[in-house]
From TrEMBL:
Domain of life per record: Bacteria
Coiled coil: none
Organism name: Halomonas alkalicola
Name of protein: Sulfur carrier protein ThiS
Gene label: thiS
CDD domains given in the database record: Ubl_ThiS
Length: 66
């Protein structure tokens, strides 16, 4: 299936969850925020949120500084 990931076309296996996408990107356990179709997906819902053809996904890394 095709999605837009951070503004670029990306091909994924069908029925992938947000949690599986995050893991495949090597970001599991990191401080990130995920938005699907302009709505934030809480971390507690990553495993239950399935991606669909044409979804627009944004993954943002939290960067600390001081």
């Amino acid at each position: 299936m095709q999605i837009q990931l951070n503004g670029e076309a990306h091909t994924l296996a069908p029925e992938l969850t947000v949690a599986q996408l995050v893991e495949s990107l090597g970001l599991a356990g990191r401080r990130i925020a995920v938005e699907v179709n302009e709505e934030i997906v809480p971390r507690s819902e990553h495993a239950d949120t399935r991606l669909a053809e044409g979804d627009r996904v944004e993954v943002v890394h939290a960067i600390g500084g001081g």
